[in-house]
């Protein structure tokens, strides 16, 4: 156990550097400089792990927290990446247009965050301004979606002013075959999870690059953390087998601060996330964690924008996964 912990500590060297046993540094994405705070010796990372007891506690939690969840489907073959940003934008636009077809007059609609959701908010605004949709009210999941809704003429209310949400549309960073997701690339996953979870129907909008065979192999898991508790939370994330990195702002020195005033830690799981439901629960049990970006059993539908050359089509995830496995079987035969 001690060896494993030391290896983990070594693995986080770089973006999150442990100096000896007690110094925690962050790296600025803008300047590449390291900065941060010295942890008192008694709270240094190693003391938490030295006898492995904390790690064992957390492992125990994993089994306690296991809940009934969507069973993992057979892993699909991976979709080809879309390297052309213009094509990727066209895919996002196409799936956004498709999503707003689901909105009916009088609906209360959850407005996700991110570039795909932004396009959907814009498309929703177009339908409203053309008079094709009446009495639609949006519930934003971030400052971004609130501002865009106002800009495109979608009326909004606060979450606490509604007792239900009919439909929510949202993007995702990774989607696997059983519709479990990683979200939080835009640091809005806490509010998104509340809104998506309470909606009668949660529709996730992705382009084909987001569909993966296993969560966490390429996209780190975002975790929103109370700034007060950042050091103990980092140590607990390491104990869970993660490689955490505090997210730095791009056009501001220092960490990203979420719309709720917290920090975001991106956690890599080098072997992937084998049991997303258990991990979601274990991470949320760490005191100081506000919410993590694993969305388990929340999506009711995932619309995938895919392309064959210039032609773009929107299909349900199950159909897309099936087409991937058929394609991979055929290429295996040849
Ligand atoms: O979870 C999110 C924001 O917190 C986004 O939905 C996710 O990052 C996908 O974004 P995009 O549509 O820009 O690819």
Into how many domains do the coordinates divide?
Answer: 1
Structural class: alpha/beta
CATH class: Alpha Beta
Order of helices and strands: HEEEHHHEHEHEEEEHEEHEEHEEEEH
Helix content: 25-40%
Low-pLDDT residue spans = 1-76
Structure in a nutshell:
The strands form four sheets. Strands 6-5-4-7-10-16-17 form a seven-stranded mixed β-sheet. A four-stranded antiparallel β-sheet has the order 12-13-11-14. It has a three-stranded antiparallel β-sheet with strand order 1-2-3, with no helix packed on it.
Keyword list:
4-stranded antiparallel sheet; 7-stranded mixed sheet; about 35% helix; about 325 residues; alpha/beta; Rossmann fold
Q: Could you outline the blueprint of secondary structure elements for this entry?
A:
Elements: H1 2-11, E1 16-19, E2 23-27, E3 34-38, H2 45-49, H3 53-65, H4 85-100, E4 108-111, H5 115-129, E5 137-140, H6 143-151, E6 155-156, E7 165-170, E8 174-175, E9 181-182, H7 189-198, E10 199-207, E11 221-225, H8 230-239, E12 243-246, E13 263-268, H9 276-284, E14 289-292, E15 294-295, E16 301-308, E17 311-316, H10 317-333
Parallel strand pairs: 4-5, 4-7, 5-6, 7-10, 10-16
Antiparallel strand pairs: 1-2, 2-3, 8-9, 9-15, 11-13, 11-14, 12-13, 16-17
Helix pairs in contact: 3-9, 4-5, 5-6
Bound molecules: ribulose-5-phosphate.
Residues 112-117, 170-173, 183-189, 192 line the site of ribulose-5-phosphate (5RP).
Any overview of this molecule?
With about 325 residues, the chain is α/β, with parallel strands linked by helices. About 35% of the residues lie in helices and about 25% in strands. The chain has ten helices and 17 strands. The protein has helices at about 1-10, 45-50, 55-65, 85-100, 115-130, 145-150, 190-200, 230-240, 275-285, 315-334; strands spanning about 15-20, 25, 35-40, 110, 135-140, 155, 165-170, 175, 180, 200-205, 220-225, 245, 265-270, 290, 295, 300-310, 310-315. The strands form four sheets. Strands 6-5-4-7-10-16-17 form a seven-stranded mixed sheet. A four-stranded antiparallel sheet has the order 12-13-11-14. Helix 4 (about 85-100) packs across helix 5 and helix 5 packs parallel to helix 6. The chain is globular. Residues about 1-75 have low confidence and may be disordered. It binds ribulose-5-phosphate. The site of ribulose-5-phosphate has 18 residues, from helix 5 and helix 7.
């Amino acid at each position: 156990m001690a060896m494993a912990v030391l290896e983990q500590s070594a693995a986080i060297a770089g973006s999150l550097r442990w100096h000896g046993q007690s110094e925690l540094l962050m790296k600025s994405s803008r300047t590449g400089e390291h900065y941060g705070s010295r942890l008192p010796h008694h709270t240094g990372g190693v003391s938490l792990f030295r006898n492995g007891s904390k790690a064992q506690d957390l492992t125990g939690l994993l089994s306690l927290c296991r809940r009934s969840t969507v069973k993992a489907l057979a892993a699909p073959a991976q979709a080809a990446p879309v390297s052309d940003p213009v094509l990727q934008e066209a895919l996002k636009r196409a799936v956004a247009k498709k999503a707003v077809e689901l909105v009916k007059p009088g609906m209360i609609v959850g407005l996700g965050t991110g570039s795909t959701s932004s396009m959907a908010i814009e498309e929703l605004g177009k339908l409203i301004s053309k008079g094709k949709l009446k009495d639609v009210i949006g519930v934003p999941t971030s400052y971004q979606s609130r501002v865009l809704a106002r800009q495109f003429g979608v009326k909004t209310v606060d979450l606490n002013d509604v007792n239900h949400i009919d439909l929510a549309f949202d993007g995702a960073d990774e989607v696997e075959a059983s519709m479990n997701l990683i979200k939080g690339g835009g640091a809005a996953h806490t509010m998104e999870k509340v809104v998506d979870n309470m909606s009668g129907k949660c529709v996730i909008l992705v382009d084909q690059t987001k569909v993966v065979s296993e969560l966490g192999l390429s996209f780190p898991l975002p975790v929103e953390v109370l700034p007060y508790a950042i050091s103990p939370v980092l140590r607990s994330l390491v104990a869970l087998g993660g490689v955490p990195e505090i997210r730095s702002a791009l056009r501001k020195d220092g960490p990203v601060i979420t719309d709720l005033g917290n920090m975001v830690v991106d956690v890599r799981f080098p072997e992937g996330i084998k049991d997303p439901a258990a991990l979601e629960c274990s991470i949320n049990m760490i005191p100081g964690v506000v919410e993590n970006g694993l969305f388990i059993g929340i999506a009711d539908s995932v619309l995938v924008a895919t392309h064959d050359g210039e032609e773009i089509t929107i299909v349900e995830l199950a159909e897309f996964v099936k087409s991937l496995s058929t394609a991979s079987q055929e290429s295996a035969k040849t």
